[in-house]
Every structure is written in C-alpha cells, then in structure tokens.
Amino acid sequence: MSKKYFIPLIAFMALVALMLFGLKNDPKVIPSPFIGQEAPNFSLPKLYKPEEMVTVKEMKGQVWVLNLWASWCVSCRAEHKVLTRLIEKMQVPTIGLNYKDYGTEDYGEEALTWLAKYGNPYQSVAVDTEGAAGLDWGVVGVPETFVVDKKGIVRYKFTGPVYDEAVDEILVPLITELRKEEG
Amino acid sequence: MKYHFLSFQSLIISIFLILALPAMAVQIEFHTFENEQRERLYLDLIAELRCVKCQNQNLAESNAELATDMREKTYEMVSAGKSREDVVNYMTARYGDFVLYKPPFKSKTLLLWIGPPLMLLFSLFLLLRVIRKQSKQDSKQLSDTERESVRNVLNSNSSSEK
Asked: In sequence order, what are the beta bridge partners of A94?
C-alpha cells in the first residue's frame, strides 16, 4: 500500500495529540508576569491593629508567602487547613491579604469571625478593602499564593486553593531551596 | 383576527427584547470625561483589554467583579491624563500579554502571528501541487483496435435495448 494513504491518519493523530495537550492545559492558570520581578509594594492596615501598617518592604531579607483570601471565598476555606500546615511545617512568615472583605458593606467583620473559627496562621493580615493591592498583584480570583525570596523577588505563584500534593511537591522544596539563596 | 394581532405584537416585543440583550450586558457604570478624546480612549481600552476572570469577554462586556475593578482602574488612569500606552503597560505588567486581545509581536508569540499565514501558504502549495499533478495525467489515446471494441460494446448495448 502506498505511503500516502497513511497521511490522513498521521494528520488525525497529530490533531488528537494537539487537542489532548489543549485539554491538559488549564486556561484559568495565567502565567504571572511577576515571576522574577520585584514584588509590588503595598502599605495596608493590619486587621487586628488598624493603626499599624503591613508593608511588603519590611519582609525583605527572608523567604515569605503572600496569600490572598477572603471570608466569602469558599475555596479559601478549603485550602485553609493545607495552608496552615505549610506555614507551621516551614515556619514561613505569611501575610494574609484580606481581599475585598473586611470593612466592605457586604461582609463587614466577617473576616474576624472566620479567622476565629478556622484559626489564624498568618504573621499578619493586611486589609485590602478596596482591592487595590490585589489589583497591583494581578489578582484574578482568590485564593492566590505567592512565594517571595529574600531579595523581594516574586518566585512562584499558585492560582487557586493549594492542596496537599502542591505543598509537599512544590512549595516545601521551593521554600527550602530559596532559603539557601543569599539575601 | 384578534389572535393574529396579538401574535404580531408579541413578535415585535420579542424582537425588541432580543435587540436589547447585548445592551443589557454592557457595563453599568457612568463616567464623565473632561473631553471626548479621553472618553474615546476609555471606550477603546475597555473594548481592547480582556477580562482575565471570564476569559472570552473584554472589559466592556464582562460583569465580573474583577472586570469592574479593571474598568475603574482604566477610568482612573485615563481621567488622570494617562496615555493608552500607560494603561496597556499597567495591565500587562500585572496580567501579562494575556490581557491583550491583540498580543505584541515577539519571539514568544511568533507562532501565533505567523502560524495562520504559514498554514495558508502551505495549504495553497498542496492545492497547487494536486492540481498540477492532475493536469499532467494526460489521457492516453486509444488504439484502433481498442476503439473498435468499445464501439462494438456500445452498439451491442443499444441494439439489445431495441
């Protein structure tokens, strides 16, 4: 049989391979342009001490994590246990950016109740009522988790709720690795 | 007759409802601008920028909360006298080229830009080749004996039908 009869078959297989590749790609995961860039600064009031400010600059010199969350966000509750485990295991200072939650008309003080109920693993909670800091960090949807190195460079972004495998296979090794780097 | 009138009326109403649908999806904030150019720029930008949450809509069409924020930011920047480039740079710095419906031409987007024209050229080339090949297949002339036998067959067929 002539070779050319196989061409449609090969073309079809190539198309199937391309589509399978497309299926595996999550279009909701947008590569963050911040990776390798300096972390955008913010200066936001602390949830428990509104007279004090949380800033990105003061975190310099250590590997730290920024977690965007809100009490209205269901998947934040889902990831909370996992995130708490990561923070406790790695003893990594974590800022919780409370996105469009505390102080808003709809949710008021819901964030306080939420943290009291599920536990507060954060070093500090920054209140971003307007969502301006969130926009500066390129938020698409909460939860989002960033890892920042000692120099203040964003090294990793996790979109969506972190799960156990992601903690053990990605975040823990990454934080360990980044800690070895010079500040 | 009354029935007929009613159905005609409802048809008209349905048509208007359908026509109104896209208008209902359009953004709901009202903004005032210093001049027409700025308003034009704002409208252009929200039509050009993509909502990263609801990915197949632009900022103007999307009613996702994030799109509202991004429109607000765009308005803020435009009314502060920022240029188109400033707004686009601000958005791409945060959301990457993804936020643009018209991505810039660079090595990463090379395939995106030249892929379709290349495919077109390639398929045109294939088409031409097939056409040439077909025109080269010259029809062989029948020999005299072959012609004779064909004629016999045709004749015998037509005679049997009679």
From this structure: A65
Q: What is the pLDDT of residues B51-70, one digit of tens each?
A: 888 778 888 888 888 888 88
What's the CA gap between A127 and A59, in Å, rounded?
17
> In degrees rounded to 5, what are phi and psi of residue A43?
-135, 105
The first and second tokens of residue A53, run together, are 């400010």
Q: Is the ipTM of this complex over 0.85?
A: no
A99 SS3 class: strand
Instruction: Judge whether A180 is closer than 8 Å to chain B, CB to CB.
Output: no
Rounded to an integer, what distance in angstroms lies between the CA atom of residue A21 and that of residue A42? 38
CATH number at residue A174: 3.40.30.10
CA distance B98 to chain A (A): 7
Superfamily of domain B2-104 in CATH is Cytochrome C biogenesis protein (1.10.8.640)
> How far is residue B50's CA from residue B36's CA, in Å, rounded to a whole number?
23
Residue A52, in any domain of the structure: yes
Q: Confirm or reject contact between A93 and chain B (CB < 8 A).
A: no
- Domain around A118: 34-180
Domain positions in chain B: 2-104, 110-161
